[in-house]
Amino acid sequence: MLSGERQLEIINIIRESGVAEVEYLAKTLGVSTMTIRRDLKKLDESGLIERCYGGAVRKTEVTYEAKRVKNHESKIKIAANAAKYVHDGMAVFLDAGTTTFEIAKNIMNINNLTIVTNDIEIASLLVNSDCDLIICGGTVQKSTKSVYGYYAMDMIKKFSFDIGFFGAASINDKLQVMTPTIEKAFLKKIVIEQCKVSILAVDNSKFDRDGLHIINELSDYTAVITDREFSSEESRLLDKSAKS
């Protein structure tokens, strides 16, 4: 079994049981405990599982409160730049997330906006604004205060947006945008198709991290607003994917 296949099997075992010990994984997969520990270290660094004493546990979504305080100053600056693309009378989609929450703060007083969001915190903020506010129906993920699922996707298909702002849980070294939840991946793909302009707004901490489900490529967005300085190799990847 190749290391990639073994690590995928480790992820599946942990996802199904919630927790797995090193000894159990080594016996089940027919390798040494040292090999398993190396695998767990790599998976933990990639954000796919969480290591604990003697083994590992299932990775959970980062809570909304934890996201809000992380790199807050960078998110404020990114949001201010993003808001420059919003003008009177636009139909705007705001993806769930703390950077898009900051964007909401910046655009909430622009005239005649229609704003659709799947973020409960953003909706709560915009209740006190003059915009026409629409919130997606669907399943609520309480830890991230976001809405997703079949009903949200079905609803989104009925809209056409002038512009949409999106966040990301992680972006890997191939510049693929990723998420821990497959339902969120489906929803984001659908929303982007409904946007005339799609903007990914992410701070540097989201890069060089793996996730479980691929949403799309960085080049699939109209623009990316970030505080990251792209390396020459990343710029080459962007140019290549943009031309393909």
UniProtKB/TrEMBL annotation:
InterPro entries: Carb_Metab_HTH_regulators, DeoR-like_C, DeoR_HTH, NagB/RpiA_transferase-like, Tscrpt_reg_HTH_DeoR_CS, WH-like_DNA-bd_sf, WH_DNA-bd_sf. Residues 3-58 form the HTH deoR-type domain. The keyword Transcription regulation applies. Pfam families: DeoRC, HTH_DeoR. PROSITE patterns: HTH_DEOR_1 (PS00894), HTH_DEOR_2 (PS51000). It comes from the Bacteria. One of its GO terms (molecular function) is DNA-binding transcription factor activity. Keywords: DNA-binding, Transcription, Transcription regulation. This is Transcriptional regulator, DeoR family.
